[in-house]
Design goal:
By secondary structure, this protein is an alpha+beta fold. It has 2 helices and 5 strands. The chain has a 5-stranded antiparallel β-sheet, with helices on one face. The radius of gyration is 13 Å and the shape is globular. The mean pLDDT is 85.
């Protein structure tokens, strides 16, 4: 199976990219944003900490640019599939979810 996030990172998916650089990109997913490394990474142990730091920083910038600053926002890290029955495709690509605080 093909990793959905790798398809997005390669430009092969029709998705609204908010911002990107050679190492990561941010796209909109409903009312939240997802930050992914362009290289397929499946664990915190293997990702370059500088890239992860850049991803977190841009996640905060995107949150504020899209009005999440005043009420707060949260950034969560996803690694692996949380529910393989609902998410049958390979989504083990490390990612950050940026959404308004609940």
């Amino acid at each position: 199976m093909t990793c959905r996030f790798c398809l997005i990172a390669s430009g092969a998916a029709n998705i609204e990219v908010i911002t990107k650089n050679p190492l990561w990109l941010v796209f909109r997913d409903g009312d939240r944003f997802v930050v992914i490394p362009k290289k397929h990474e499946t664990s915190l142990e293997h990702i370059d900490p500088i890239i992860l730091g850049q991803m977190a920083k841009v996640g905060g910038q995107v949150a504020r640019q899209h009005g999440m600053g005043p009420s707060g926002y949260q950034i969560s890290l996803g690694v692996g599939r949380s529910n393989p029955d609902v998410e049958p495709e390979d989504r083990e690509h490390l990612h950050l979810i940026v959404e308004a605080a609940k």
